[in-house]
Amino acid sequence: MPQTKHTLPDVQLLTAGQLPRLTARPLDAHKGQFGHVLLIGGDLGFAGAALLAAQSALRSGAGLVSLATRSEHVAAAAARVPEVMTLGTHSANQLMGLMARATVVVAGPGLGQGAWGRSLLSAAASAPLPQVWDADALNLLARDGLGLPANSVITPHPGEAARLLGISSAQVQGDRPAAARALSRQYAAVVVLKGAGSLIASPDGRLARCDAGHPAMAAAGLGDVLAGLLGALLAQGMPAFEAACLAVWLHASAGEQQGKMGRGLAASDLIPAIRQLLEEQSPCLS
């Protein structure tokens, strides 16, 4: 179904000159000042999603990144992203110690909807930390009625948004601003409604739209990169709505930049482009 573009006067269009910025870092900066992102995901067969999110968080400036995943994926994570602290996690009890040291949780990339993922997500839901819920975390939220922690960001695509609202995808796409705002009210969270013209809605009524992007971004794994990026910006102290606006613009603009080369865009292609764009928007040194 064709998407309807709404040009409402109260929708802020995200442009390069009007984006939230991270503050510059002092010369004596250390990793403890820029947050600790804990990623929860990567059930059997889905290690790649969790690793993409972890790599994205790392390259987007988080001071520390940990990954709670299946034990079978620890060796692959150590080889792919040795800077990430990876723990093979069998139960919610093991997760508690990791959450005690984290400042932000990103849950969902490759999480699955089985008993393992449900157990870990239930534990995360009880943690008083800013959180980003994506992918199967949203499917479990819609299915199991978990309580979403305060100061959370959810990142549904239209199908996930439809399940969360109990309506059809066609209804979501027919009025995307209304759907984004309804989700934000219902879950008291900042909402990133993904798709062409991604929308960011806040429970206080703010709504922003990003028109950047490229059709080559219709590929697997890009949502995992966005989730990791969002977690890193939250870890560095940005409020949820501002972090979501900046993350969506960086992600879409990196995809637009890389998409000029045509089909075959891989999600990991966006990560170095995001890092470059972030430095242009928020230089590390003043």
Quick structural summary:
With 286 residues, this protein is an alpha/beta fold. Helices cover 43% and strands 14% of the residues.
Q: Topology as H/E string?
A: EEHEHEHEHEHEHHHEEEHHH
Q: What is the number of beta strands?
A: 10
Average pLDDT works out at: 95
| Form type | globular
Largest sheet properties: 10 strands, mixed
Helix vs. strand class: alpha/beta
Number of helices in the DSSP assignment: 11
CA-based gyration radius: 17 Å
Q: Helicity, in percent? A: 40-55%
- How much strand? 5-15%
| Unreliable segments of 5+ consecutive residues | 1-8
Strand arrangement, largest sheet? 1-10-9-8-7-6-5-2-3-4
Can you walk through the features of this model?
The chain has 286 residues and is α/β, with parallel strands linked by helices. It has eleven helices and ten strands. The chain has helices at residues 47-59, 74-80, 92-101, 115-125, 136-144, 158-165, 169-174, 176-187, 222-235, 240-259, 270-281, and strands at 11-13, 36-40, 64-69, 85-88, 104-107, 131-133, 152-154, 190-193, 198-201, 207-210. Strands 1-10-9-8-7-6-5-2-3-4 form a ten-stranded mixed sheet, sandwiched between helices. Helix 1 (47-59) packs across helix 9. The protein is globular and about 45 Å long. The chain starts with 10 loop residues before the first strand and ends in a 5-residue tail after the last helix.
